[in-house]
Design brief:
The chain has one domain. It is globular, with a radius of gyration of 18 Å. By secondary structure, it is mostly helical.
């Protein structure tokens, strides 16, 4: 299946990746290193979890458990099922595909370069951020006054985190898009099943 990505149908993906990845500077390297880090994801989830605790009190642990289980399930499907089935090499691991273009990678303090795991499609950053964002939006939107501000925070952070994965050379744009599709499907199914069940966690 990996040969599919080397066909002309995916030229746009390769060209868009190179266009984003080639525009870099020492300043933005440092910024993207923070944005793409796992620590930012933890902070993102913690802030939203505290909001759930504030608004839902005693019921908050059930909501957080639900969001956590759905997000972890989506992450596992992306990493253990889809990535290993599709087997698309990350741009950081597939120099031959890019020919004369040298993929820009982030250099660590020890002199090594961050390349990520071997396979790239779909992006688990995209899956995790959007799955949790959609679920947090579902539970928090009835409680907050400025819903637009919540949406900007959720989807703005998601977009920045996903953009950073292209910038640092470990994902193609299609990896992000496919990750978003997986996330929307998983979150949508989870919310649908929750609505059809006897549980009403938003009370």
């Amino acid at each position: 299946m990996t040969e599919l990505f080397h066909t002309p149908a995916f030229d746009w993906d390769k060209q868009l990746f190179q266009n984003i990845n080639s525009h870099h500077s020492p300043f933005w390297d440092q910024v993207m290193q923070v944005i793409t880090s796992a620590q930012l994801g933890v902070i993102f989830f913690l802030i939203l979890s505290l909001m759930v605790v504030y608004f839902y009190r005693k019921n908050s642990w059930k909501i957080l458990l639900f969001i956590g289980l759905v997000t972890l399930s989506a992450d596992a499907i992306g990493a253990r099922v889809l990535k290993t089935s599709i087997q698309r090499l990350r741009p950081s691991h597939d120099a031959e595909y890019h020919g004369d273009y040298q993929v820009h990678l982030l250099q660590r303090k020890d002199g090594t370069y961050y390349r990520g795991g071997r396979y790239s499609c779909p992006s688990n950053h995209a899956i995790n951020y959007l799955t949790s964002s959609l679920l947090f939006l579902y539970f928090l939107s009835p409680k907050v006054r400025r819903k637009w501000l919540l949406a900007v925070f959720l989807f703005g952070t998601t977009l920045l985190a996903c953009f950073s994965r292209i910038y640092v050379g470990v994902h193609y744009p299609f990896d992000i898009l496919f990750g978003w599709m997986v996330a929307a499907f998983m979150a949508g199914i989870a919310i649908l099943l929750l609505k059809k069940s006897s549980l009403n966690l938003r009370d």
